[in-house]
Amino acid sequence: MKRTHAATTLVSLAVASTLILSGCTPSAGGNAGSTTAAVSQADIDKAMQTPTTLTFWTWVPDIQQEVDLFEAKYPAIKVEVVNVGTGTVQYPKLRTALKAGKGAPDVAQIEYQYIPSFRQTNSLVNLQPYGGDELKSKYVDWVWNQVADDKGVWSIPQDSGPLGNLYRSDIYSAAGLSQAPATWADFASDAQTIKDKTGSYISNLPGNDPGQVVGLFWQAGAKPFSYDGDKTVGIDLDSAATQKVVKFWQDLIDKDLVSTDADFNDAWYQGFSSGKYASWQTAAWGPVFLQGTAANTSGKWTAAKIPQWNAGDDVSGNWGGSSDAVITGTKNPIAAAEFSKFLNGDAESTLTFANKQFLFPTTTDTLTSPDFTGQASEFYGGQKVNELFAGVSDTVSTDFQWLPFMDYVYSSFNDTLGTAIADKADMSSALTAWQDAVVAYAKQQGFTVK
Amino acid sequence: MSAAPPLRRTSPSRASAAPARRSTIRRPQLFAAWALIVPFLIVFAAMFLVPLGYAGYLSTFTSQLVGGEVFSGLANYTRALQDPSFWAGLGRVAMFLFVQVPIMLVIALFIALALDTGRVKGGKFVRLAIFVPYAVPGVVATLMWGYLYGTDSGLIAQLFRAVGLDAPTLLSPQNILGSTMNIVSWEFIGYNMIVLYAALRSVPTEMYEAAEIDGAGAWRTAWSIKIPAIRPAIMLTIIFSVIGSFQLFNEPNLLYSIAPNAIGSDFSPNLYAYNVAFKNQDINYAAAIAFLLGFLIMIISYVVQLATARKERLS
Question: Which residue ranges does the record annotate as region Disordered (chain B) (predicted)?
């Protein structure tokens, strides 16, 4: 009896305090997901002058130089940078910390495709009250749609990866081709020419990189995923657009015009330096990456736009890119939000990201800044590669969404479509198998599948 | 036979002595005994029993991304028993058990016997050279072999090309199991060899002399005297290898980055449990898989032990 009584008291106390809290202090939110009123400038000023330490999980190398800029502007705030691992290594740790209720950072780097999974668990602070909405105009449209929807602003975009086409101009000219393929049909006929005349593969389609394949789907106008932010998901991996992409590559793979080596490992790097692959359909972060892995081929590369499905079109997709989100449970949401906004919005900080760490920019200011676009790249024979990709960024389709469980979607890719690619097996039915696996998982996890 | 396991010989007497001892033992001794055991018991409980119990508890819940955790009894276990991925992984480790373990142990035994004859020149060096792979961390070994296996630039492929042959695709889905077996054998032949060799050294040499007088050659001595004499040691290596193959994880997990599509997410049951827990975010189901696997290992180890105990009684 006594225990029940105590419990009742506790519950009523808790209810009462919740009522009082929610009634009186609308803007003081640890759990800012429920806060809607905007934080005033006075609150921000006060927070930025209060000595605070923020923890920031990121895997961007040398990010201390941007953090230093922030700390120079706000001497009261100290930012502790922690690298707990790259992407898929970091997320499980973040989830564990969130579940445990302690040890989570104030701000964490999250790739675009994983934002919904952290939204679904209410782990991201809605940045709308922290001036999130006013930022919309600063960023490229499609990038902004990756971090915000009509329910809130969930993260601040850090970098992106619009798709282009990097090709070996020396191999192309050896095959008698004077320019990059404008359409995928050209790409297919060039593939045959290049193989016949030089022995190189025009490209490599890895079976372990769902990010690239989804980027190619994106470019073809597919909308395989949707999520309403709550319990409803749409899964349309097996559509006319995706089948078109898959059948196109299947044909080239069957004719042995495209190789299917796993990417981002030693053998693959050597494929670039040895001329095994004549081109790479890659993201805007690719040019600098390639420079590091195939240094001996300097000057032989050219950057071009990605081939089009319909002649005369100019559309691209995206592969990769990250944002910095404020994590629920932070004691200093204002400082954390200001930090993320500064890091990814301040002119000097974003330009440093772009020119020192080679993160492809997301703000229109940096994308149009001559300091960024004007750089000529020796590796690409003096071409202004940044300028080209800055132009591509505007052509990315704007309303691409993700599912709140991309970890599973990607690991299941490796078991279905990815395996079919690597084995040169039937990719079309493997795509259907991927669709089925993802739908089964979604239902089993309690989602409503549209 | 002199090399029968000491435990088995002493256990009956210990059991009968126990009640008598309880009455004669004095309090300070009892206290000292407990004081010595308690630290172990505490650590054992905190680091083994509690996590095990917690995992068992977790395995009886079903968690969903939408809706959270619900108690579901044995639902995760029935799900695992119907899960083709779980069975595929088990099938692969069973192949490991029946193909890799015999090959590895036969080679280890052969080397141990050869060294034991004392006729191998530079025996000490050979012993060390064969044992060294065991001292190489499994991670390093797998990465090293991964490079050797590489289809374009790997050493093996280059050798094949140098003599004008087609390079084998050692990292293809068809061959990856064999490639993994090779790595594990390379790592553990030395270890098993040392265990067997040490056992051989403790066999009394009079028996060999007696055999020699009876006219037995080296092969006959090995087959009829040495191998039976070290049966307990052989059993030990078998049990360890059985457990080792069911727990296969490091090698496929590391090869995954080199040959992701050949390995997949369910190469071995352990790897599958890991992927279920951390990629599919289904810790409860992963706990059930881990428990099932634990039960299986227990049963199989017990069966192996029973079989040998019976053989020993028969002989």
Answer: 1-20
